[in-house]
Design brief:
By secondary structure, this protein is mainly alpha-helical. The protein is 84% helix and 0% strand. It contains 8 helices and no strands.
């Protein structure tokens, strides 16, 4: 059943107002996740012995990756039944582990290029998310198409591990930027639809923050591959 984006399934304009009031909470949780990631990355990078302990031991590194997938899967599968405290703990725990694994990426690029790329990413993300907030166009088709594109670039990235083609890597990065910019708008609209369908909930806000957090992180990483200066 199509959702009325002007009023919402609650049947009055007040529900739409409540949804718009909830969106700052979504962005607040997303920002908390990004801060957690930044601080955990900075902590790892502050001590080379920690970096070596994590990335010289494949068991530790892949254990962190698996733990992240488990946390995301747990949050996604229990989002309508878990408490706000549990949802927040899982999300921030994932953000912390993600910061640890991303620290190796930040070692590859100069600090100035990481910072400049972050601001460019923030501007692009903000523009796409605002579009998702205000547009009356249904972005479901866009989201589905971008998800297919995402699977395509994952396959291309795996293939390029063997080819090691800089041209293919450049093309993947361009497509990745387009995909995650579009997904940002789609996910922003989808979060509002979830509020309309399932009601106002802090756990839904945290789940939405996770999606926007992932959009931001992936957009940032693809931009960094395009614009970043390697050490």
């Amino acid at each position: 059943m199509e959702i009325n984006r002007n009023v919402g399934s609650f049947g009055n304009s007040e529900s739409g107002i409540e949804i718009h009031r909830m969106m700052p909470k979504v962005y607040g949780w997303m920002f908390a996740g990004l801060l957690t990631t930044a601080f955990s990355s900075a902590y790892v990078l502050s001590d080379i012995s920690i970096v070596e302990a994590i990335f010289s031991n494949s068991l530790v590194f892949f254990g962190l990756i698996i733990a992240q997938f488990m946390l995301v899967g747990y949050l996604a599968s229990r989002i309508y039944s878990m408490s706000k405290t549990t949802a927040a703990s899982v999300f921030l725990g994932y953000s912390l582990l993600n910061g640890i694994t991303l620290s190796i990426v930040f070692l590859m690029y100069t600090s100035s290029s990481v910072i400049s790329t972050f601001f460019i990413c923030s501007a692009m993300f903000a523009g796409a998310s605002v579009y998702g907030l205000v547009t009356k166009k249904d972005l479901t088709g866009v989201g589905s198409f971008m998800m297919m594109g995402l699977f395509g670039i994952i396959i291309a990235m795996v293939v390029n591990l063997f080819l090691q083609s800089s041209a293919i890597q450049w093309l993947i990065s361009i497509v990745g930027v387009v995909i995650f910019t579009a997904l940002t708008a789609y996910d922003t609209q989808r979060i509002q639809d979830q509020f309309r369908k399932h009601g106002i909930s802090d756990t839904i806000a945290i789940h939405g923050a996770l999606h926007l957090y992932l959009d931001f992180i992936n957009l940032f990483l693809f931009l960094l591959r395009l614009l970043g200066n390697r050490r």
